[in-house]
Specification:
Helix content is 49%, strand content 19%. It is of the alpha+beta class and 159 residues long.
Length: 159
């Protein structure tokens, strides 16, 4: 008989409450169990003492009998000091998602285009100075429109 130390959900809809139980692995999640070992209330703040309550002596007994804790319960037991901390590996944790990668490439393309546009007038300053002298009001409104579109793009990127 394969024993597990796992969470059995109770509580009402959108208000979870879990019992930490020792159960046969073939039984349903919320079904028959052999012994209740504690409780877990995820709605309480993380620093609350009442968030996780366990009878550590009984947990140690079941572990010595060969019961396997689930991932979530093993994390709770590690925090309580019953189990040694495991080395976990999540290589994709810092990798951005598809949409973020797309936004980054778009931003890089726009920055490159802006750099080219800034570099081109530097080569021909006389032509641009004449244009600025003729229409200073139009140039001011154009720079204002560019600033507004840049602000809108930043808001879209933040979403």
């Amino acid at each position: 008989m394969a024993m597990k130390i796992r969470l059995a959900r109770g509580g009402s809809k959108k208000r979870p409450f879990y019992r930490i139980v020792a159960a046969d692995s073939r039984m349903p999640r919320d079904g028959r169990f052999i012994e209740k070992l504690g409780t877990y209330n995820p709605l309480l703040p993380k620093d609350s003492e009442d968030r996780v309550k366990m009878d550590l002596d009984r947990v140690k007994h079941w572990l010595s009998e060969g019961a396997q804790p689930t991932d979530r319960v093993s994390r709770m037991l590690e925090a309580a000091g019953v189990l040694d901390k495991k080395e976990r590996n999540n290589p994709k944790k810092a990798e951005p998602g598809e949409k973020a990668k797309g936004r980054a490439t778009e931003k890089a393309e726009k920055a490159a285009a802006a750099a080219e546009a800034a570099a081109a007038p530097a080569e021909e300053p006389a032509v641009e100075e004449e244009a600025v002298a003729e229409t200073p009001a139009e140039d001011a409104t154009a720079s204002q429109e560019v600033a507004e579109t840049a602000a809108e793009e930043e808001e879209k990127a933040a979403d």
